[in-house]
């Protein structure tokens, strides 16, 4: 397995700033990740953000390079 890539959105502040920058309400921002509005609200309020959610954020909202790094990392996992 590869080393975890540098994830662009790890803190509640970074995630909330991203959501506001893309001008989305919580429901529409979190839906592509399979996270409910209430779950996303908890992450934005400071609850620990699971690595899997951080990876999904990188794939969904990261730059092309960040998205590709996260995908490559996920592909390196053994089933």
Automatic annotation (TrEMBL):
Pfam families given in the database record: HTH_92
Coiled coil regions in record: none
GO MF entry, a single one: DNA binding
Domain RsaL-like HTH: from-to ranges: 16-58
InterPro entries from the UniProt entry: Cro/C1-type_HTH (IPR001387), HTH_RsaL-like (IPR055172), Lambda_DNA-bd_dom_sf (IPR010982)
Protein name: XRE family transcriptional regulator
């Amino acid at each position: 397995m590869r080393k975890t890539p540098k994830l662009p959105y790890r803190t509640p502040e970074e995630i909330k700033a991203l959501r506001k920058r893309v001008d989305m309400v919580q429901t529409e921002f979190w839906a592509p990740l399979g996270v409910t509005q209430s779950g996303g609200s908890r992450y934005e309020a400071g609850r620990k953000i699971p690595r899997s959610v951080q990876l999904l954020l990188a794939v969904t909202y990261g730059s092309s390079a960040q998205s590709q790094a996260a995908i490559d990392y996920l592909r390196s996992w053994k089933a």
